[in-house]
Amino acid sequence: MGKIALWSISVLVGPALPVLNYLELFSFNPILPLVIISVLYHLYLGGRVIFDYQYSKSSFNIIFSCFLYIGLPLLLLNQLLVDKYDYILIINILVVIWASDTFAYLIGSTMGKTKLLSRVSPGKTVEGAIGGVVFSIISGLILYKYLPIGDIYFHLFLAVVIWFFGLLGDLVESHLKRSYNLKDSGTILPGHGGFLDRFDSFNYLLPFVMLYLLLFSN
Known about the structure:
Order of helices and strands: HHHHEEHHH
Distance between the termini: 41 Å
Helix content: over 70%
Strand content: under 5%
Mean pLDDT: 76
Shape: flat
Radius of gyration: 18 Å
Largest sheet: 2 strands, antiparallel
Strand order of the largest sheet: 1-2
Number of strands: 2
């Protein structure tokens, strides 16, 4: 699965970058349609978690899914976030994710009693999720003071978007591994569940953050 995923991402995403740049020369911006496609696909993945639908193990399905799940968000990241916001928004997203994950774990491990979705991720609790959103909002308020993008409401709503879809992304990745009977997503980062485990939330929430920016950012 890992070799197929890497091959599909490199083959499909690599040529797509110059194609997008070529389309922009003719005043056609494909970003919004691609963001909508990516959002719909990621919502579809979230639905599979909720209803516990398993995944096809055909090579075509794996290649196609890898492109939409991993490749397309990273492609859009290059075209939208980096070009428009440079590194500032990336820092914002990462800080909120880390705050959410860290305090969700601390609060969930010390005070968590109510399981969130035990069949997918037994360690996650409702109390941990609440702790995650609270500290996501706190981190958003702190970032508003230091990062020169948007007003306070922009940062607050962005923090909630990052928290919710980051949590859902973590559950989607856990569900994917269980569907394919995998303990880890790879071996690049031993002891951390693989490279994708470290960036599952970030990768999953990118389309939703981009849609939020396209709709509500100046």
